[in-house]
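Figure 3 (text version): structure tokens given as input.
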């Protein structure tokens, strides 16, 4: 599923059942996905039961050519209302990390989630929901082609890395997702509950800044 969706999207692509079927590229090279085409292919997605309770699909937002991509878990209440990722209290903290911590503008990076629809009550995503949805994220990652992904929290890190290792052991160390560097760190909503962990996140973010040669803001 991941790879099939991620091969998005040539003009002759057809949806057959759950799968996006693509014609063979004439030169056998990987087709380069395009964010607008991925969103178009998603449509009013009904591939999992979250379509029945969502208000809006939260696709992703930011620079389509970003060097840095943040991946979270799933939309929360404010995101569901607005259709934009990370705009609630946790989103404000992420914006502070990007703008005050890293000295970047929020619209310089790309932000997306594992799931595009809000799980009721912000419960953890079910495995079958991730299975149905993560191919869209995989296609987004290929489209944006960031130099590094920051996986925010346990759900994002474990699903991208396909591991059950706790986030406390994954964070702070460079991993790889299909050839792209990946740094797991704690989710901003966890930081709101556990402010003492901000120090750990700042250490992780500084490693990302070094990787991207971003100078520390004064
Ligand atoms: S969570 Fe993903 S797979 Fe499920 S309905 Fe929303 S967009 Fe489709």
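Below: residues designed for each position.
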């Amino acid at each position: 599923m991941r790879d099939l969706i991620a091969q998005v999207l040539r003009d002759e692509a057809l949806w057959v059942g759950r799968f996006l079927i693509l014609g063979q590229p004439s030169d056998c090279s990987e087709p380069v996905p395009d964010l607008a085409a991925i969103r178009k292919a998603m449509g009013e997605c009904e591939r999992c039961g979250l379509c029945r309770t969502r208000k809006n699909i939260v696709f992703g937002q930011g620079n389509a050519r970003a060097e840095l991509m943040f991946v979270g878990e799933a939309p929360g209440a404010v995101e569901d209302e607005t259709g934009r990722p990370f705009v609630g209290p946790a989103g404000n903290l992420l914006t502070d990390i990007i703008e005050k911590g890293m000295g970047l503008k929020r619209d310089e990076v790309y932000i997306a989630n594992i799931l595009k629809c809000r799980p009721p009550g912000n419960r953890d995503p079910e495995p079958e929901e991730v299975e149905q949805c993560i191919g869209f994220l995989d296609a987004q990652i290929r489209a944006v082609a960031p130099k590094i992904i920051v996986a925010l929290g346990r759900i994002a890190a474990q699903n991208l890395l396909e591991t059950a290792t706790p986030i406390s052991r994954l964070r702070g160390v460079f991993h790889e997702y299909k050839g792209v560097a990946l740094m797991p760190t704690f989710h901003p909503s966890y930081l709101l509950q556990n402010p003492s962990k901000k120090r750990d996140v700042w250490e992780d973010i500084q490693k990302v800044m070094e990787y991207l040669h971003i100078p520390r803001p004064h």
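Residues 42, 45-48, 50-51, 57, 115-117, 129, 132-133 surround iron/sulfur cluster (CB under 6 Å).
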